[in-house]
Amino acid sequence: MTLYVTSLASGSSGNVLLVRSGDAALLVDCGLPLRTLEPALARVDVHPAQVSAILLTHEHGDHALSAGVLARRYGIPIVANQPTLAAIEQDLSGVPVQELATGAAATIAGFSVRSFPVPHDAAEPVGYTISAGRWCVGIATDLGHWNEAVVEGLAPADLVVIEANHDQEKLWRAPYVEVVKHRIYSPTGHLDNIAAGRLLARLGADGRRRSAWLAHLSREANTPQIAEQAVRGVLALTGVQYVSVVALPRRAPIHWSSDMHGEQLSLFD
């Protein structure tokens, strides 16, 4: 069973991941306007009616902006924990919802889905692992720091999608007001490049070969080149091998498949 993952948008202007296997498809977050999201899906040959569920990590607009509108228009259930559903209750009139408690697991359209807690300044933010057959993607895109719950949540993943929001030096020089800088830097804000590298190093210490996508890069306080260089540097210093690292573009789709991943792993056997 092949698992396909496509990033349609990543960053403070919107986050959307598409996960597919066979005829089933899930969206993780829905942070683009509908007028942008529908064409983005069309470009990867997916009609919204093919989407079986929308999984929300938390209620912030860059993750949940059009979730209610898309769900209502196409009859797609929204899956989230109760505090997240309560936080966007005004947008959910007429929308089918499925509560998934933090730390709980469910089978959704043939996918095995499990959530885990992450530290972020939202009602009850979570990450997810989504599995199809033997393959798994793990997602933790907004978190101010990582802990053992995050490590345990992401451990099964073949593709890890984690936040590498900012370079610390660039953050303090960025054109943000001071309160925003301190929010981003806080333990419930956003993960910096070095912390993302350390998280991947902690995961990679088990010797498992993984792909890693660096997500939610700040336009003002990071670049893909800086993020990749910093994370790869941490991995090299800690002696972790076989973790491939790619920084996600803000809007251009980027794809991963378990078939491609399996072929790459066979080169090391």
Written description of the protein model:
The chain is α/β, with parallel strands linked by helices and 269 residues long. The chain has a single domain, classed as Ribonuclease Z/Hydroxyacylglutathione hydrolase-like (Metallo-beta-lactamase, Chain A), CATH 3.60.15.10. The protein contains ten helices and 14 strands. The protein has helices at 34-43, 61-64, 67-74, 82-87, 148-154, 168-173, 178-185, 193-204, 224-237, 258-266, and strands spanning 4-9, 16-21, 24-28, 51-55, 78-80, 97-99, 105-108, 111-117, 126-132, 135-140, 159-163, 210-215, 243-247, 254-257. Strands 6-5-4-3-2-1-14 form a seven-stranded mixed sheet. The chain has a seven-stranded mixed sheet with strand order 7-8-9-10-11-12-13. A hairpin with a 2-residue loop joins strand 9 and strand 10. 49% of the residues are buried. The model has no long low-confidence stretch (mean pLDDT 95).
In short:
The chain is α/β, with parallel strands linked by helices and 269 residues long. It is built from ten helices and 14 strands. It has a single domain (4-266), classed as Ribonuclease Z/Hydroxyacylglutathione hydrolase-like (Metallo-beta-lactamase, Chain A, 4-Layer Sandwich).
